[in-house]
Every structure is written in structure tokens, then in C-alpha cells.
Automatic annotation (TrEMBL):
Superkingdom of origin organism: Bacteria
Protein keywords: Membrane, Transmembrane, Transmembrane helix
Protein name as it appears in the record: WD40 domain protein beta Propeller
Gene3D superfamilies per the UniProt record, alphabetical: TolB, C-terminal domain
Annotated organism of origin: Caldicellulosiruptor hydrothermalis (strain DSM 18901 / VKM B-2411 / 108)
Lineage start: Bacteria, Bacillati, Bacillota, Bacillota incertae sedis, Caldicellulosiruptorales
TM spans (from-to): 16-38
Length: 400
């Protein structure tokens, strides 16, 4: 009888151990799967770094497009070599040649005539199209998954659609307008394209701000390339960046005249009413780009150590330190982000789902080697990583 009880007890213990071990293994598997899924969906940083090289008298640049994971792991999406001897204007804002979309990154081929897309998830090329002329600008809409491309003579819209049955994306390229355009950006609702246009017959560098209605196939000028009665050959508008508000009603630009050193400020246009406000005084010493922050606020970097020997900037708070600033477009007030340490110059803000990102060197103009990318979240500043080469482009992405 005692032996029978012992055997029954032993069976219960073995059963308990078996069930416990099975539950532990199942828990580990579930944890790994959930961690993998969360890791894929969590916000990552896509960036392009540049290295300048010389070979047999040819000056060229190597561009590497990468995804940086929160773990520190990096995925190489593309590498492209561009000759500085052959491509005129390569050093003029190379950020314009790369765009981080919803599911793919877009970039130009080595002669700036091929448009190429690489998928984040598969890390494979999914689209390649040779354009009739040189590509000047690419931008992405992360809400719709569309890209806007400006070549030397035309403006295009590239749409994508996922086909679940075949597990592939299909793409369609549409001509939107003829002309010379810069910094084209599709509105969040996908109905409009805001961009600079160079169509002045007296000065082809003078740039106006226009909005193209894709449904009506019409174009409207919001901001002139002229400044009053000033001679346009000497005084004219230059645009450095274009951004939409989240409700697709307002367009903000960073803009200046050809003055040296350039004095850049923020201007905002109301697409619905056509009203424009030039925040010339309080947003001066803006370092592009300007980006949407919330419904009625845009974010930009203001101030620069390099301006200390030029002019009187007493109307600008702490003018010789680069800091992040929020512009309220309703009343024109500025809100300074104070959580960033004063020993860090903050440039190039990018607003992600999980926080606000910024860099510590030069922004659009010249990031310099060894630029770091930071993240501001819950009033804490984290240094995410250091870029070895020159930072050319970066944005937040999510892999679904």
C-alpha cells in the first residue's frame, strides 16, 4: 500500500515538473516572439552617411543607407557611388536625393537619373525607374506611402500598393506638372503638393512657394519670389525646406534672400485662406529644416555659433547657440525647449511617434564627421549613436 502511494506521488511530481517545464518553455517562446514583434514595430532610425574619396584624380562620394535598431544593430539597405567631377551640384543639399517613406527608402542612382526603392523589411530593391532627366529632389509621405520626385523639368508622384496574395508592392508613376521645382512635399491627406518653383524669366534662381491641387489639377502661388519693388536680380527669395502641418492646412518654409551671411527665417502660409505670415524677426537665424510638431506648432533649430561676428541679433534669444524652438503659428510666439543641455548645439529636429530627435552638428548645411543623433523623450535627452561619416539624411521609421 505504501509502495502504491509512493508511485502515485512520484507520478504527480513528474507530471507537475513536466507541466511546469512546458509552461516555462512556452513562456520563453512567447516572450521571444513578442519581443521580436515589438522590436520590428518599434521606432528605428533610418540614415544616410557620406564618405568623400579620391581615386585616380576623380573626386567621388560614397553614400550608405542604413537602419539603426534600438539594440545597436544596423542593416545596410544600399550603397551608391557618385562622382563629384561628373555631377554638378552634388554638394548642394544632398539630403534632397534621399527619402525615408512608410515601407521603403528612395534614393538616386550614381548618375542621378535612376530612382531606386529598397524595402525596409526584406532589404531588397523593389523598384527602379530611369527618369528622362536628372533627379533634383525626392520626398516621402509616411502616411500614404507615396513619394514625390522633382526632375530638372517635371514633377512626379509615385504611388505604391501592397498585393497580399503575391506579397509584393506594385508601383505607378504619374506626371503632375512641368517646370522647375524644389523641396516638393505631399500633404498628409495626400491631396496637395507644396513646393518651391523657379519660373521667373528675369532670375531662374528666384523661388516662389506654390501649392498644387492634385484633384483639381491646378496650381496656386502662395508666396512670391519677389520682395516688394526690390530688383529681382539682387534681392529674391530662396527656399531651404518645406513642411506641412498635420491637418494639411498650413505650409511652413525656411527662407532667405541671397545676403551673405544668409539670414534665414520661417514663413507660414494658410492654404485655405491664402494668408501668409513672414516671421522675419523672431525666427531669424533659423537652421533648416522646419518640421511639423503639432496642430498649430512647427519646430526648428534657431541660433548658430558661426554668426557671432556678424550683425546685431539682440532680438533673438541666445543667438549664438543652436537650440530647438516651437513656433505657434496662431500668435507667432516661440517656446524654447529647455530640456536639452546648454553644452549641446541642437539641429535638424525630426518628430517621431516616440519622441523628438535631433543632431549636434550643422543640420542640412554640413553635419560634419562624427555627428551624433539624440532623442528627447519625457524630458530626458538620450544620445542614441554617433555617425562615422557625414550625416546626409535621417528620419524615423517603423517596420510593420
Amino acid at each position: 500500500m505504501n509502495l502504491t502511494i509512493w508511485k502515485k506521488g512520484n507520478v504527480k511530481i513528474k507530471t507537475f515538473l513536466y507541466v511546469s517545464i512546458s509552461l516555462i518553455i512556452a513562456g520563453i517562446i512567447c516572450f521571444v516572439i513578442i519581443s521580436h514583434l515589438i522590436g520590428n514595430i518599434s521606432e528605428k532610425v533610418g540614415y544616410v552617411e557620406r564618405f568623400d574619396k579620391t581615386e585616380n584624380g576623380d573626386f567621388f562620394a560614397l553614400f550608405y543607407g542604413k537602419i539603426r535598431h534600438s539594440s545597436g544593430k544596423e542593416d545596410l539597405l544600399f550603397k551608391v557611388k557618385m562622382s563629384r567631377n561628373k555631377i554638378k551640384g552634388l554638394d548642394y543639399f544632398p539630403v534632397r536625393l534621399f527619402a525615408w517613406g512608410k515601407n521603403q527608402v528612395a534614393y538616386c542612382g550614381e548618375d542621378l537619373k535612376e530612382l531606386i526603392l529598397v524595402d525596409y523589411k526584406t532589404k531588397k530593391e523593389v523598384y527602379r525607374k530611369r527618369m528622362p532627366e536628372m533627379i533634383k529632389y525626392i520626398s516621402a509621405n509616411k502616411q500614404t506611402g507615396e513619394f514625390v520626385i522633382a526632375t530638372e523639368k517635371r514633377l512626379y508622384l509615385l504611388k505604391s500598393e501592397y498585393v497580399p496574395k503575391n506579397k509584393i508592392y506594385t508601383f505607378s508613376l504619374k506626371k503632375v506638372a512641368r517646370g522647375s521645382f524644389c523641396w516638393p512635399v505631399l500633404s498628409p491627406n495626400g491631396k496637395y503638393i507644396a513646393c518651391g518653383e523657379m519660373d521667373n524669366k528675369e532670375n531662374d534662381a528666384a523661388t516662389s512657394l506654390v501649392v498644387i491641387d492634385l484633384n483639381k489639377n491646378s496650381k496656386k502661388k502662395l508666396l512670391s519670389e519677389r520682395f516688394g519693388d526690390m530688383p529681382i536680380n539682387n534681392v529674391y527669395r530662396i527656399i531651404y525646406s518645406v513642411a506641412w502641418s498635420r491637418d494639411s492646412r498650413y505650409v511652413a518654409i525656411s527662407t532667405s534672400t541671397p545676403a551673405d551671411p544668409s539670414y534665414i527665417w520661417v514663413s507660414v502660409a494658410d492654404v485655405l485662406t491664402g494668408n501668409v505670415t513672414e516671421f522675419t524677426k523672431n525666427t531669424g537665424l533659423c537652421s533648416p529644416p522646419v518640421n511639423s510638431f503639432s496642430g498649430d506648432k512647427f519646430i526648428f533649430s534657431q541660433g548658430s555659433p558661426g554668426y557671432e561676428e556678424f550683425g546685431d541679433y539682440s532680438n533673438i534669444r541666445d543667438p549664438f547657440r543652436a537650440k530647438l524652438v516651437l513656433l505657434n503659428i496662431k500668435n507667432g510666439s516661440l517656446e524654447y525647449i529647455s530640456e536639452i543641455q546648454k553644452n549641446i548645439n541642437a539641429y535638424w529636429p525630426v518628430v517621431g511617434v516616440d519622441g523628438t530627435y535631433f543632431t549636434d552638428k550643422g543640420g542640412y548645411f554640413s553635419s560634419g564627421e562624427g555627428c551624433s543623433i539624440y532623442k528627447l523623450k519625457s524630458k530626458r535627452v538620450l544620445q542614441l549613436f554617433k555617425v562615422r561619416g557625414n550625416l546626409v539624411s535621417y528620419d524615423t521609421i517603423r517596420i510593420h
